[in-house]
Automatic annotation (TrEMBL):
One of its GO terms (biological process) is DNA-templated transcription. PANTHER family: PROTEIN SCAI. InterPro entries: SCAI. It holds the Pfam family SCAI. GO terms for molecular function: transcription corepressor activity. This is Protein SCAI. It comes from Macrosiphum euphorbiae (potato aphid).
Length: 575
């Protein structure tokens, strides 16, 4: 520092202090409790504050930092990457998709300004690993924002970077990075199980988040007074494709339970913006601060929150499941609903006698098969401890509870009693699939979840339609929309007002799930390949069959949809 004047020395010292403070705060994020919203919000706010100062400071004093401190471009990129991670993790904790767009803005800036372009010249393998991790994180954000063109380009770049990294350093984690790349490619392929094509054969980018156009209509009554506030998404399907601790089923449900922020932007931005557009971005220029949420003014219990709060759990232990259930239960405001979604392998009991429906019918796995096998080797005939049983949910029916079980043992959850009289619904997937579909979907996600996520995609899949022209897709969607509208009308007139369904029906997300369940049930019930009760979904309380699920008007729209797509032969007589 001898060659610096006092002003320059002060700038460098302050930058070093801000940099060290930001690193300490960022590292502290991993120690924050995953649940309990009020606990971690203040810490996130403080971290955002420091990174705001750091980002502005390095922009305002770039010349001094370049010449006197020796600031390198990869160091600027690392700061931007940390800010992107902050926004992404804040999205995971709040479900506010604005934060996804902010993460994308910073990750795009890193790529557009080539902050990591000279990392290879540093001859440091740890910097190459930082670069590879940046690419993996950027791809996750692009997946959630449906930026397909960007994903394609990033995959090609990541592939090249992995080759450069492994050939230069011959690292111990060479296989690990090859597996990461393969995971991403497999995940992207599974996500596009049915492709919708423009006239020029290019893929249409579809969003499956809730929009005003896809919100089912309803004539609300005073009984429809509940709103979805807390969500727990659990993924433990051992053979499903996954990426970044997120199975394809979890990925689909995350989007299904969020509102679309800007539909027009999502539909046309498939490529990263140019450098010129970065200069216009308020998050990147030196004239404005980071656009982080004003967390001190954010009411976590506000019923006006745009998206319900979510906990996303990949292969959690039974202890973790119970902890998050208890936390979500505790944080429910008045008239709030807790939704629990489970996509997991079945856990079956060997006992032939059923004395306790809460535990003797098995449940779903809450650990890996390996852990269960080790437990079972003891040879003692006791209940499997690594299993989520229906009886485990009994205490949480003290408040409105909406449960979705997607498993090959889902029917074990159909006997949960309403001891406390609060609204309670369970939607259960079919326990079996036709052999051909089972083979096709074994790794690519569940059919039931696909129906809840994108009903038309699921319909096309069971009719062996893997590509659809855009004009056919739009017309087909109109038949699905008519079905949903008619089902909504029938729901309010045919389902008894004292049943839980009506109380849940006022919430847009829950109404959407219920009506898509009805579509799934009607479609599968009339499909020739789905013969037998084990091939159909179930719900508790049961919906009336003769006066609702078997309504002629609903069957009519399914028939018209099948006729439009020229797949009537897949269905039995709709009379």
């Amino acid at each position: 520092m001898a060659s610096m004047d006092d002003h320059e020395r002060k700038i460098v010292v302050e930058f070093c202090q801000l940099l060290e403070q930001s690193k300490q705060l960022f590292n502290g994020l991993r120690d924050l409790p995953q649940c309990g919203q009020k606990i971690w919000q203040g810490y996130f706010g403080k971290t955002f504050d420091v990174y705001t100062k750091l980002w502005k400071f390095q922009q305002q004093h770039r010349q001094v930092l370049d010449t006197k401190y020796g600031l390198k471009r990869w160091q600027i990129g690392e700061i931007a990457s940390k800010i992107g991670q902050l926004y992404y993790h804040y999205y995971l904790r709040t479900s506010d998709t604005n934060n996804l767009n902010e993460a994308y803005s910073f990750y795009s800036a890193i790529r557009g300004r080539q902050y990591y372009s000279r990392v290879s010249q540093e001859d440091r393998s740890d910097l190459m690993v930082k670069k590879l991790r940046y690419y993996a994180r950027f791809i996750v954000v692009c997946l959630l924002l449906r930026r397909v063109g960007a994903i394609r380009e990033l995959l090609a770049e990541l592939d090249k970077q992995i080759v450069d990294y492994t050939s230069t350093y011959e690292p111990d984690d060479q296989l690990e990075w090859s597996l990461v790349l393969e995971e991403i490619k497999t995940f992207v392929k599974a996500d596009s199980i049915v492709n919708v094509l423009h006239a020029d054969q290019s893929n249409v980018i579809l969003s499956h988040r809730l929009t005003p156009l896809t919100t089912p209509p309803v004539e609300k009554s005073t009984m429809m007074n509940l709103s979805l506030q807390e969500i727990i998404l659990i993924g433990n399907a051992s053979e499903q494709v996954k990426f970044s601790e997120m199975t394809i089923d979890m990925f689909r449900m995350m989007q299904t339970l969020e509102r679309e922020k800007n539909r027009d932007e999502v539909n046309h931005v498939s490529d990263p913006p140019s450098r010129a557009s970065f200069e216009k971005s308020y998050s990147i220029t030196s004239n404005k601060t980071l656009a982080y949420p004003m967390m001190a003014n954010h009411d976590v219990n506000s019923s006006r929150r745009e998206n319900p709060h979510k906990y996303i759990l990949y292969k959690p232990t039974i202890t973790q499941i119970m902890m998050f259930l208890a936390t979500g239960f505790k944080e429910l405001p008045a008239n709030g609903v807790l939704l629990m979604y489970v996509s997991a392998d079945g856990c079956f009991q060997t006992s032939k006698h059923v004395n306790d429906l809460g535990y003797d019918c098995g449940g779903v796995m809450a650990s890996s098969k390996r852990e269960m096998e080790l437990t079972n080797k003891k040879g003692v005939h006791v209940k499997e401890i690594h299993c989520l049983y229906p009886g485990d949910l009994y205490p949480f029916t003290r408040k409105p509870l909406f449960v979705i079980i997607d498993s090959d043992n889902s029917f074990a959850f159909q006997y949960i009693p309403r001891y406390f009289g609060h609204p309670f619904v369970v939607l259960m997937s079919p326990q079996e699939l036709p052999d051909k579909l089972h083979e096709q979907l074994q790794h690519n996600g569940s059919l039931f979840t696909l129906f809840l996520h994108s009903p038309l995609t699921a319909f096309c899949l069971i009719c062996n339609i893997l590509t659809v022209k855009m004009h056919l897709w739009e017309r087909a969607n109109s038949y699905v929309d008519r079905f949903i509208t008619e089902a909504s009308r029938l729901f309010t007139s045919k389902v008894k007002p004292d049943v839980s369904y009506i109380q849940f029906f006022g919430d847009d997300f829950l109404r959407l799930l219920l009506l898509r369940y009805v579509f799934c049930h009607v479609v599968l019930r009339h499909h020739r390949a789905f013969v037998g009760e084990q091939y159909l979904p179930r719900c508790q309380p049961p919906l009336p069959l003769a006066s609702f699920l078997d309504e002629i008007s609903l069957k009519k729209y399914v028939r018209e949809l099948a006729k439009h797509l020229d797949v009537l032969s897949h269905f039995e007589n709709f009379e």
